[in-house]
C-alpha cells in the first residue's frame, strides 16, 4: 500500500509540474486559448446580429448563417485540439500546430529510439518518409538538419569502432574526441544517441535556450521557459573550451543523483568580422559512483523546484520541499 501511495504521489507531482509548466510558460497554449476566445467572440457577435435583426434580406442572412457555421467549426476544432494537448495525447494537438517544431522532432526521434540506424549505412534518404509525415514545415526543416548532422557524426565516428572505444575508455567525450579527431560535442552527442543508450543529453545556444533534449529517467527537462541556472551546462557556456564535470542531485522523494559532463564550443560562422556563436552541451549519466566531492543540488526550473533556500531562485515555487 505504501508503495502504491508513493507511486500515486509521484504521478500527481508530475501532473502538477506538467500543467503548471504549460500554463506558465507555454506560448502555444496561450495562442490556442486566444484562438478559442476569438472564435467564441465571432460566434457570439454573429448570433446577436441574427437574433436582434429581424428584417435581414435573404442573401445577407444566408451569409451570416454561413459565417456562423464556419466559426462554430473553428471553435469546435480548436477545443478538440486543446483538450488533446492537455490530455497529453499529442496527435490532434500536433495536427493543429499546438506542439512546437522542436517537440515534433523530439517525438519522432523518441519513436526511433533516438538512434537513426539508417544513417550507419549512409541511407539518409530512407528517413525522408518519416520526416515528411511531421506536421509542420519548421519541424521538417529541423529534422533534416538533425539527420544531416547525425549522418556526419556516423561518418566520422563509425558505430562499431566508436562502441569499442566507448567500452574501453568509458563515457569520456574528450578522450573519444581526441581518438577520432572530432570535436567534443560531437562525441557527447554520439555517446547519447548510441543504440539503447540510457544517457540524457541537452544542448543550448548562447542565450541558454535548450535546442535539443534527450531525457533520462529521473532528470526532468523543462519543455518551456528557462532551465535551472545551476545546471553545469550554463557554467560551461560561460567558460568556452573548458570541461565542467559535477555530480548533481535532483529534488524528490528518491533524490536521484547523476554525473553530468558539460562543454561549450565557440564558432565563427562569418569569420573574424562576424559574431561569436556558442553551443554548449551536457551529458547526463545515471547511477554515478559515490561522490568524491560535494554533490550539487539542482532542479528542473524554478517554478516547479521545491528547494526553499536556493540562492539562484528567480521566482517562487508551487511545490513544497520533499515532494
Please identify the top-level CATH class of the domain at 198-323.
Alpha Beta
Give the neighbour order of strands across the main sheet: 2-1-5-4-3-6
From N to C, what is the helix and strand string?
HHHHHHHHHHEEHEEEE
Assembly state here?
single chain
Query: What is the terminal separation in angstroms?
Result: 18 Å
Binned, the helix content reads: 40-55%
Radius of gyration: 24 Å
CATH topology term of the domain at 198-323:
Beta-Lactamase
Beta-strand proportion: 5-15%
Overall form? elongated
CATH architecture of the domain at 198-323: 2-Layer Sandwich
Helix segment tally: 11
- Uncertain spans: 89-98
Q: Could you tell me the number of beta strands?
A: 6
Query: What is the arithmetic mean of pLDDT?
Result: 82
Please state the structural category: alpha+beta
The main pleated sheet reads as:
6 strands, mixed
Which features would summarize this protein structure in a list?
6 strands; elongated; alpha+beta; 6-stranded mixed β-sheet; single chain; 48% helix; 11 helices; Beta-Lactamase; 323 residues
Amino acid at each position: 500500500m505504501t508503495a502504491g501511495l508513493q507511486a500515486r504521489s509521484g504521478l500527481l507531482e508530475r501532473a502538477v509540474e506538467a500543467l503548471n509548466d504549460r500554463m506558465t510558460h507555454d506560448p502555444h497554449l496561450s495562442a490556442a486559448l486566444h484562438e478559442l476566445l476569438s472564435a467564441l467572440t465571432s460566434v457570439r457577435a454573429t448570433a446577436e446580429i441574427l437574433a436582434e435583426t429581424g428584417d435581414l434580406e435573404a442573401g445577407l442572412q444566408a451569409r451570416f448563417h454561413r459565417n456562423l457555421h464556419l466559426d462554430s467549426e473553428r471553435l469546435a476544432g480548436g477545443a478538440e485540439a486543446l483538450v488533446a494537448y492537455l490530455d497529453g495525447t499529442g496527435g490532434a494537438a500536433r495536427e493543429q500546430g499546438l506542439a512546437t517544431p522542436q517537440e515534433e522532432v523530439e517525438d519522432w526521434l523518441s519513436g526511433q529510439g533516438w538512434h537513426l540506424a539508417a544513417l550507419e549505412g549512409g541511407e539518409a534518404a530512407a528517413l525522408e518518409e518519416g520526416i515528411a509525415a511531421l506536421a509542420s514545415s519548421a519541424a521538417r526543416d529541423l529534422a533534416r538538419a538533425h539527420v544531416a548532422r547525425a549522418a556526419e557524426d556516423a561518418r566520422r565516428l563509425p558505430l562499431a569502432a566508436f562502441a569499442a572505444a566507448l567500452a574501453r575508455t568509458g563515457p569520456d567525450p574528450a578522450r573519444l574526441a581526441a581518438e577520432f579527431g572530432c570535436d567534443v560535442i560531437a562525441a557527447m552527442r554520439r555517446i547519447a544517441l548510441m543504440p539503447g543508450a540510457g544517457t540524457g543529453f541537452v544542448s543550448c545556444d548562447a542565450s541558454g535556450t535548450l535546442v535539443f533534449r534527450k531525457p533520462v529517467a529521473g532528470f526532468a527537462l523543462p519543455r518551456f521557459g528557462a532551465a535551472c541556472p545551476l545546471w553545469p551546462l550554463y557554467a560551461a557556456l560561460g567558460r568556452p573550451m573548458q570541461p565542467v564535470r559535477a555530480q548533481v542531485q535532483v529534488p524528490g522523494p528518491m533524490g536521484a543523483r547523476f554525473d553530468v559532463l558539460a562543454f561549450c564550443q565557440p564558432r565563427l560562422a562569418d569569420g573574424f568580422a562576424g559574431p561569436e556563436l556558442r553551443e554548449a552541451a551536457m551529458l547526463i549519466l545515471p547511477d554515478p559512483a559515490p561522490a568524491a566531492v560535494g554533490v550539487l543540488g539542482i532542479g528542473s526550473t524554478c517554478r516547479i523546484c521545491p528547494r526553499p533556500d536556493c540562492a539562484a531562485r528567480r521566482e517562487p515555487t508551487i511545490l513544497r520541499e520533499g515532494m
